[in-house]
What does this fold into?
Amino acid sequence: MASGTARSLVLWCRDWPVVAAGAAAGAAPSDQVAVVHAGRVVACSAAAQAEGVAPGLRRREAQARCPALELVAHDPARDARAFEPVLLAVEALTPRVEVLAPGEAAFPARGAARYHGGEAVLAAKVAMAVDGVLGGRGHCQVGIADGVFAAGLAARVGLAVGDRDRGQAEDRAQAQGLAQAPATARHSVVIPPGGSSGFLAAFPVGTLGRPALADLLVRLGLGTLGDLAAQPRATLAARFGPEGIRAHRLASGLDERPRAARRPPPELAVVAELDPPADRVDVAAFAAKALADELAERLDHLGLACTSLRIEGETEHGESLTRRWRLPDEGSRVAAMVERVRWQLDGWLSGAAANRSDASGGLIRLLLAPEQVAPDQGRQLGFWGERSAASRRAARGLARVQGLLGADAVRTATLRGGRSPADQVAFGSDAATPTAATPTAAAPAAPTAPTAPAAPWPGRLRAPSPAIVHPEPLPAEVLDGGGAPVTVSGRGLLSAPPASLHPRGVTRGTASDSATTATATPARITAWAGPWPVDERWWDPKAHRRVARLQVLTSEGVAHLLKLNGGRWWIEATYD
It folds into this structure.
């Protein structure tokens, strides 16, 4: 087994938002359901998938593919509330169940596997217990591997356990009275100890959950987790910082953080006594917000970040309730804590689990405690050490618009590595926490070339950057003084000095019509600089690209960035 990892079991319910909405996940024609958020499909039933509907599609495109599609609004609180009975069924088999997200949970597998007779039998029991709660509305897939990340991917693979392991699981399960073990075992994947790195090698780097980092890794030639794991960790740390270390650990089959992470001191727990007892979610959530603010302030004072939160409640009849939630790394940690506490209170007080025998009456005590903490990477503060009022107002305004239009409707621009102006800017939906630049934009060297020059991104244009980057480059013609097209030789030399620019393929020597904008008017070139040839990804025949860029200034006083690609000139950007 890899150092710093522990055997973990992850249970994953496919298309959980559909199941939580009460729609059947079977293949019946009448069960064509899709859950939408911000105009896009978040999850869809198997019947809808058979008609061509898939997560990520726009609402109109999904309805065009499946006219009988029933649309349901996305509700994370509903998903978390419906997941509580599943967690109660799993807790009957093992303690310390941690919720990764609504529809997905994990727990240590070593002790539970020894008690139940092996990992394959444990996986079969968990799948059977969850399927019994779902009652045919959905199915549970189970993965066991070294670490939560590998186990989660194993659960999503959905393949069967090996024939030998499945046969042993069925024999042991039947001996213990599990009549349906052969069916449930087919929803389980058990990765042998020490085999997580080999299992992960073929997965794309997009499975790391960092789109910006994955996009840059692909452009650097690291398309799979196996390629990433083969790189020296020190090189990735120098190039990407903590993100590179995290990505290398996950790609190598290790836990996201070492097992020897510091344990939180007991004084970090915050408690609130509720008098009178709170039997409504909004009343308990109001107290939880104050607790989350107090806990976040204590963690900030110590330079720590909470990665796993334990929520405890006590009812007026003496029942004790406990649940653990995994917190995301990005976004506001206070908002993440409040959101998950509210989800859990909703499940305790108003969900299907509220009618269980050990949860009667209102809550009289609520406790929040960090189960796991890690050093906080912090943020860049203002000159006097605090966030400016303008940045706080901008964050609140973006969050308000995000709440009205959806998280994907508000996007912010961030800088990243790249050679062309279009490659150096990426748009993301993390509008509540705008940033100026990512650390990847000023890294010293690429991970695939430890002996690369010190300057980052050879061939990248120097400052100043163009103000207008055209979404689609505009076709153009660059002519010399005799009216012949200007070309660039293999040695990066111009065939002749450029004399005129004809944007958008305007016929040379003619004026543009009224439907053509000013940028489409032929203009005389008064000054130029370049060319700068770039030979990108020469080692990859499919992605190989040779580009030559040229800066020109026209007689109208407008400066353009041109590129020659495939024998044609294009206006890539315009300087303001």
The longest strand covers residues 523-536. The chain has a mean pLDDT of 76.
